[in-house]
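May I ask you to review the protein record following this short note?
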Amino acid sequence: MHHAIRLARRAEDSGEVPVGAVIVHNETCIAEGWNSAIALHDPSAHAEMIAIREAGRVLQNYRLTGTTLYVTLEPCVMCMGAIVHARIQRLVFAAADEKRGAVCNVLNLADAPFLNHRVNWRSGVMAEDCSQMLKDFFRNRR
């Protein structure tokens, strides 16, 4: 999660919402991403999506079985859909997103009975640090 926080800071330095993501396979970081929607002119360029795309290239597979995704903010519905479709085994996120969170807050996609893959997930890892980073970012933008 420490590395994901460093990536979130990189996003923040670029004027993006500070979210960072890391994908680990066999105890090795194989992919990373940070929010880049503004810079890339791409609404799908969330940290998770960028990391998932990179991990697919590294593993030469669209299925990312046996991987863990660490992200500083609870994934949105788009990202959670990609996480499920990629068959990511485990998701660890820091801050809960009470307005758009699709793991366990607004939507409970991690436990949705209509999905054919279950993602093991854990929340709250370094949540205080990540929540404060997001609060500071939005306060400074106002």
Notes: The helical segments are 2-13, 37-40, 47-59, 77-85, 127-141.
